[in-house]
Design goal:
disordered N terminus; alpha+beta; globular; 28% strand; 34% helix
Length: 186
């Protein structure tokens, strides 16, 4: 039975079951205000950073949304980015732990936004908002490693800059589990 589970069909079935379960997981939101009300935009808008995770094939994904929330509590603007292996990266090498070129991609180009399961929503000052935005270019030039420098690590780098509590992700931790742990720690 064990060998059957790890046959190609068994593995595909297992991945499908895990992804369907993750897609139907309860949505978890937590809102934290780390801003100084005196540091809002001139029109009263608030700067918001959202650490997100979604389930799905094959293992889910973590990413970050930067938004400016209008004074009437409607999002005025947002950008969202996640860290991925660059197109054309060797999947076998990645699975074996090799570094491959990394790529910060706009999540608007994927379906990630529609599949969010967990969100840690943090209101921040403009300075923190701008500092975390600088991380995008830092990560754009780095390598991707499935076990040590991936979408969870990108989200953690932003979370540290924001001043959130929690621990760095571990290799075997799925993105949804990791963001849930960040939510619990804050």
């Amino acid at each position: 039975m064990i060998t059957r589970l790890f046959s190609s069909r068994g593995l595909v079935a297992l991945l499908f079951i895990l992804s369907v379960a993750a897609l139907h997981a309860d949505v978890v939101d937590k809102v934290i205000d780390k801003s100084n009300p005196g540091n809002r935009a001139a029109d009263g808008s608030r700067y918001v950073i959202v650490i997100c995770a979604r389930g799905g094939l094959p293992f889910g994904h973590a990413f970050v949304i930067w938004g400016l929330e209008g004074a009437t509590a409607k999002v005025s603007s947002e950008t969202e980015f996640g860290f991925y292996p660059a197109p054309g990266s060797n999947p076998i090498g990645m699975g074996l732990g090799a570094n491959v070129p990394g790529d910060v991609k706009a999540e608007a180009l994927s379906r990630s936004i529609n599949l969010i399961n967990h969100r840690l929503i943090v209101t921040v000052d403009k300075a923190v908002f701008d500092d975390t935005n600088k991380l995008i270019s830092k990560w754009q030039t780095g390598d991707y490693n499935l076990y040590a420098r991936n979408c969870k690590n990108f989200a953690w780098d932003v979370a540290k800059k924001v001043g959130l509590a929690g621990a760095a992700p571990v290799a075997a931790q799925l993105p949804l589990t990791y963001v849930a742990a960040l939510i619990d720690a804050n």
